[in-house]
Amino acid sequence: MNDIGIAPSILAADFGYLMRDIKAVENNADYLHIDVMDGHYVNNISFGIPVIQSIRKYTDMKFFTHLMITNPEKYIKVFAESGSNNITFHVECTEEPFKLIDEIMAQGKSAGIAIHPDTPIEEVFPFIGKVDIILVMTVYPGFGGQGYLDISDERLRKLRKAIDEQGSNTIIAVDGGVAEDNIRHIYEAGARLFVAGSSVFHAEDPAKAIEELKRCGTLS
Ligand code: DX5
Ligand code: ZN
Prior knowledge:
- This protein has 220 residues and is an alpha/beta fold.
- The protein is 32% helix and 19% strand.
- α6 (183-189) crosses α8.
- Zinc ion is lined by residues 9, 33, 35, 66, 175, 195.
């Protein structure tokens, strides 16, 4: 990943033509973001393991799996075996986050921790240097197509400062409401990896939309 990475979220793809949509971003995206929702942690149900196993057969993209599920500890192994490259779970969803991180890494996978907009950002500070990605939710988890929450700016700045102070290379990712007109602003607040659903898959040319996001994100 260069200075700025884009992870299109298939939640905004057309599931009837899922592989066609994935192929459209395969050469331009840094990761494929895969939103798994269980109807418990969030008020929505998306898809699960069989879908990941199926798409794994047809692309070499890096899968960034965002588990919006309760009891993630029960499913780490199966998500690892289904072909996820990164497994990210919510700090709100487990009592034993460090154990989970170890388990993910023991499976040879990259580990991430996600944080809900209502959870104090300081709650992810103990994971700096322990996980590869900290995923800051910039919308309320559950649905695509929402607007970026302005309260995120301050949260990102605090996290950026804490990471830089420790000299850590943990990546700050953001998820929700990322578009061409705000990506530079979010970059300046501290994010380096950008999950983007609607702004990529609802565009006429998703590959071009990724390039446009990267261009806008690196403007000075
Ligand atoms: C929301 C998901 C996001 C979502 C982002 O719960 O975690 O990944 O797909 O969608 P947009 O980019 O449309 O806000
Ligand atoms: Zn997500």
